[in-house]
Amino acid sequence: MTPHLLVTRQTKSPRDNAYHRKSVAASLVQCVYVLEKDRQEQREGSDALALPWWAFFHIQLLRTLVVDVDASIFAAIHEFKPPSSMCNDTLRRGPRYVIAFRGTITKAAGHSLGSAMAMLTRKTMAKTGIFMESFLFNPPYVSAPIEGIKDKKLKHGLRFAGSVVTAGLTIAMKAKRRILSFDPFAALSAWVPCLFVNPSDNICSGYVGYFEHRRKMEEIGAGNIEKLATQTSLGCLLMGASGKESDEPLHLIPSASVTVNYTPARDFKEAHGIPQWWKPDLRLESKLYQY
C-alpha cells in the first residue's frame, strides 16, 4: 500500500515541525485505508474504527471519494476545524482542506493506484502554475532496480552511461521535432513535493538514486547532461524514435524535498507500509533538490 496526502496550499506553518507534519499526513492517509476496511466489513457507528485517525487532530471528514464500479473508498476530503481556544494567526495561515489518497489494498503490499493519481493530478496542476503542497509516501519509481547494486562505483557508472545515452537521444529527438522554445519539465521546477521513501522498499527507492545522481553529475561538471537525461526515460525515447506515441514518464519530477528513512526494516511490508511514517525516533535524512 502506497499512500499520499495532498494539502491545498503550499504554506509552511511555523506551528508544525517536520515530525508533526509528517505524522498528521500519514495518519490522514491511514484513515482512508480504515474507512475502506470499515465499509468492507460493514462496521458502522460505534463499531467503526476510522474516526480517531482524523478527530485527534481537530479535523473533520467532509466527504469520501468512491469508485463507481464497486463503491470502494479511495480518497477522503478533510477540513481543519480547531476549537476557538486554539485559533490564532498562525493557525489561520495554515492549510484548511486536505485530500488524502490511499493505495491499493491487497494481502501483500503492491503498486499503488493512489500514488499514480496523486502524482498525475499535482503535475497537471503545476503545469498551469498552481503549486499545491504534496506529501507522497513510498511513491513508485519505475526503472531498473539499480539501487539494489551494492558496488557504488558500478552503480554510478551505470547511471552515468544511462544519462549520456538518454541525453543524446533527447537532443536528437528535440532537433527532429524542433521543440526548443518551451521546456515542460522545467515548468514544473517550482513545484516541490515532499517525498518520503525507504531504501529497503524497491518500489520507491529509485528516487534516492535519481536525485543523488543528478547532484553527483553537477559536482563533476556534467550537470547539463543530467538536466536533459533527468527529463525522460530511455524507454520513452526509444518508443518516440520508432514513431510510437509515448506518454510523459509519470514518476520523473524536477524538484523535491526527499526524506529517506534509514531505520532498518524487518521485511518489505514494513519498508513499504504507511505505519513507519508516524513512528518516533526514526533515522531520517532530508534533502532539498531544486532543478
Automatic annotation (TrEMBL):
This is GDSL esterase/lipase.
